[in-house]
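>> Question from a student workshop board

For tomorrow's exercise we were told to take the sequence and the ligand below, predict the bound structure, and bring the output to class. My setup keeps failing. Could a helper post the expected result so I can at least see what it should look like? The ligand is zinc ion.
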Amino acid sequence: MGSKRLHQFRLNARELLRQPGLDKQIADTLPAAELGVDDDRIVGEVTVDLIAISSIDGIAVTGTIALPWRSACRRCLAEVSGTTVIAVDEMYQDPADAVLDDDAFEITGDQIDLVPAIREHVLLELPDDPLCREDCAGICPVCGTDRNHGRCDCDTSVRDERWAALDQLRLDDD
Ligand SMILES: [Zn+2]
Ligand SMILES: [Zn+2]
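>> Workshop helper replied:
Here is what the output should look like for this input. Compare the format with yours to find the bug.
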């Protein structure tokens, strides 16, 4: 069953390149496991909605990948879920026809397999440590109260500063 579905994500490169301006739609869903991604944060199927358009320079593939996920808030551990929509903009080029762009994929045979690019996007865009909401108050490190729902009188000022510092690091990282 797997190979049949994955077949949808193969393009006939020769046919597209023979006729600049030709396009081909690739729209399907598939389980992450078939992409070769084994990650229990992904729930349900990945939705791929792409269009390949040929030009004299190569084949441009654009569109979106919708990635449904579920994870735990990094502060309060509540379940967080969402769908990340990933913008795709890739170029596939045949080195025999064109000087390769820096980030282009090389067309090596008659077909283009889109799965490696899709897998790469999915792995890059899975949320590492989401928040349930921007201002999640987290769990009190002293008494364990979920401060989104209840209050306590513990002195946690030191811990709060550390969070702020971590958040700042993350922002600098982006
Ligand atoms: Zn939270
Ligand atoms: Zn407390």
